[in-house]
Amino acid sequence: MKKLDLRLFRMIKNTKGQYIAVLSIIITGIFVFTAVNNSAVNLKDSINDYYDATNFADIFIQGSNMPESLENQLIGSNGIKEAEARLVFDTKFLTGNDDDNVNVRVVSVHQYENKINKLFMKNGKRILTGRDIIVIEKFAEARSIKLGDEIKLRINGREHKFNVSGIATSAEYIYIMENEQSLLPAPEKFGVVYVEESYLQKINGNKGGFNDIVIKLNTPDNTDRTAKYLEDKLDKYSARVIKRADQLSNNVMNQEISGLEMMSQSIPFIFLLFAGVMLSVMLSRIVKKDRISIGVLKAMGFTNDEIVMHYLKYAGSVGLIGGTAGSIIGTALSGMMTNLYLMFFSIPMLVVQVYYRKIIISIILSFVFCVLAGFWGVKDILRINPAEAMKPESPKKGKRIFIEKIKIIWNHVSFSWKLVLRNIFREKKKFVFIGAAVAITCGMMIMTMWMTDIMDLMFNRHYGEFINVQYNISFNEFKSENTMKEFSKLINVKEMEQRVEMPFEIKNGKDSKIVSVIGLNDSTKFYAFRDINNNALELPQDGILLSSNLATELNVDVGDEVILKSLVKDDDHSYVYVKGIVNQALGINGYTNIDFLRGKFLDKGIINGVYINSDDNVTDKLKDIKDITVLSQFDMKDAFSEFTAMTAAAMGTMVIFSGLLGFIITYSMTLMSINERALEFSSLRVMGFTKKEIFNMLIRENMIMSVIGIIFGIPIGLWLVHYMGVSFTTDLYTMKEPVTISGIATSIALTIVFITLAQLMTYAKIHRLDFMQALKNRVS
Amino acid sequence: MSDTVLKVKNLSKNYQMGEVTVKALEDVTFEVEKGEFIVILGPSGSGKSTLLNIVGGMDNPSDGEVYFNNELITKMKDKELTYYRRNKIGFVFQFYNLMATLTARENVELAAELCENAADIDEVMESVGLGDRADHFPSQMSGGEQQRVAIARAVAKNPQILLCDEPTGALDFETGIQILKVLKDVNEKFGNTVMVITHNASIADMADKIIKMRSGKIADIIINENPISPERIEW
């Protein structure tokens, strides 16, 4: 080994604390990047493979009474390659326990194999005859359903028994949610089953009429045009055309992948940025300390390039080791992370790959990044004149800091505090860096706390404050208002309200969106509408209230006029005024007065759902009523509790990452201070300062910067929250909940814990420092 | 001693300190023959270190010329000066300036790795009397031992000139004498030209040539026909 390299190796050994510190930030940055990015790619590739293997539809059509002959009519027109008509409806899964409210979606399939949305068989056979049924895997697992089991469904008001002949997954139900408002999958409460088409038609009473068509296109590029064509062509069947991008399961998957991609492009770079600055500061300090050595090397005949390279090897080794370790750990974790998705997503062809190209790119990027950051730190080598370097460096110009000019304060400051304040002002860059690290740590903590709170807040805000409904009952068809009287007889009702819920296309100029519009009593007790400023909103007699994400998507404001186009009744549309924008955390909806909606689009006195609050077990009491679906808020809360437990682990990891940043930077910068100021501390020791007093001085310096960092960290955290809120707001969620005071307080407390831990670890260094040796040391 | 290895002609160096121009060197001219032991003698501030730095290719003059083996070094570019220092010059500093994280031997090897015709490391270590201390780190050595390592480091490159800036300045009398003896031995054994700058007039007695400096100018150049051995020096 060349002697200069040997010197480098021993330099690393002597500064191992700082070296490991910066290395761990690089490793964290690279492994988060590799793990998250690989997971996103794994997920994307797996889904695409799955979609290709099962010939996943490009367009989904929901309508009513669509004849099977439509299949042939559609094929060949407007880029349509294949079309398959289906029967799809939700019904009750009978468990034998009346308290257990379980629904399934029944989907008709061909006897042998479908052309589109083929089932991926996990167990059993695909061929279906008569009472054979295929159950979707997640539901089967959650309810312990096995091949050969008998299951019972209530179809067309009657109990039907089926034999489980297969367990399968479907590309259409990777993420199984009952509807947009469900928020989370609850596999034991909702599943999907597949029954042979002719048998299902027979028992359901459908004679040749289908309510669902799936379409495969020659090329997905024409999706928009074909979707428009289908909307027009199938208008008479009240068809709702859903593009693959908007299909619920696919939409959730894409949002998850986008979230991962966004995370892989933000958090790692915060770490790398700090590692870069830290490396640059560290090397500039080392170069400053090695000034005489550098002068000697130059005097001996080493070129500038050779000396710069000597120090850059320090940075390069950090990049190389950090990049390699980070990408290896990241790749290993990406496998675990991708497998974790199996808890939520049903992807049988999950591909977990090692992306060697990415590993190499990560290592190269990390290396180049560290070398560049290192060069920024060592560039002063080029300016060192060997002749000048031999002479002792002239002491820094001592100038008074601005507080000194305020005599009334300065005269009351103790000597040790004066030292603290002067040090901070004389080493501005270093302390700004510590402050910035604390600020980012605190900011990231706030974001993490917010994310921990937000799901809880969103759920409770939506289902506790916005909608206060214990039981949401939906009818499969419109019924008379008198149905409510029947319910009143069966249930001891505390509160009950009628509702009409219909799909509409809401248009504002070029912008349009298909959503459910809910017609409610004007004095509804089940909804508490509030605008985005949290002011109470009344349901207007006429006009419509739009959820805030819908208003944003349609680009409308209060007072604008939009077109409401019914998807139930042909060519029925009406112009209505937007009377308010509703702050809504979950889902995307429009709300009108029930009479206003009926007046425009329906007959008087008809409804298709009711809201009920009751102490009775409504699910049980209404079990014999045909063609209704009961959704209980209690079941949703149970599903949510399970989810909360799982997210807690993820958030814990985020807290550790955030804290690690503040911890490492404070620790390494303090360590650097101790090394550089050995002579100063030795003088203080000679004067009679104890080790503890010197340590307290260092603590005070960092404490001031930590307090400033925390103060700046709060707005940074709020900005991050805003950024995350905007990024994650979709049709499904509106993440506009504010950060809570307790969230901020917890973040500050956690930041203080990590900073204090870092401080305590440096005490050992102070204790070990040989002050007398430092005073007499003259070798460079 | 017939070949001229170094020619310094009308060398001047000015520093600007605020509005005042300080003349560190003024019209300095002298020659050095191959294998000579030169002492540049003068009080602090007389310009001797500045002269050494310019001759060693570490600083540029304001005016004048320095020729090394008839090659004009004062017009050399930075890179050429580096190679000049690498291949022709060996420096010994007052405060040794060793690499703290390298052992004595490694410090010497560091220099030897720089040039193609490096001296034999063991021989150099022996000649400075450090054979048994080669594996010690600078912090484990006395000032005199460290200065021996510094001399070995300079000699290991097989330089034509050894430039020594107050090599005994930080040492006690006895150690100082030992160091001067090492320098003289090196001068005689390896045939290097040795140029020592000092404010200690006693050291001049061991030189072949004494250049006395005062206020940036050469006050006198004395050829010492009978240089004494370092052991006989007293101060």
Automatic annotation (TrEMBL), chain A:
Organism lineage string: Bacteria, Bacillati, Bacillota, Tissierellia, Sedimentibacter
ABC3 transporter permease C-terminal domain: residues covered: 267-386, 654-766
InterPro entries: ABC3_permease_C (IPR003838), Macrolide_Exporter_MacB (IPR050250)
Membrane-topology descriptor: Multi-pass membrane protein
GO function term, MF aspect, one: transmembrane transporter activity
Protein source organism: Sedimentibacter hydroxybenzoicus DSM 7310
Localization, UniProt: Cell membrane
Keyword presence, Plastid: no
Pfam families (UniProt xref): FtsX (PF02687)
Membrane-spanning ranges: 20-36, 267-287, 318-347, 359-378, 431-451, 643-667, 702-721, 741-763
Domain of life: Bacteria
Keyword tags: Cell membrane, Membrane, Transmembrane, Transmembrane helix
Designated name of the protein: FtsX-like permease family protein
Main location as per UniProt: membrane
Similarity comment: Belongs to the ABC-4 integral membrane protein family.
Gene Ontology cellular component list: plasma membrane
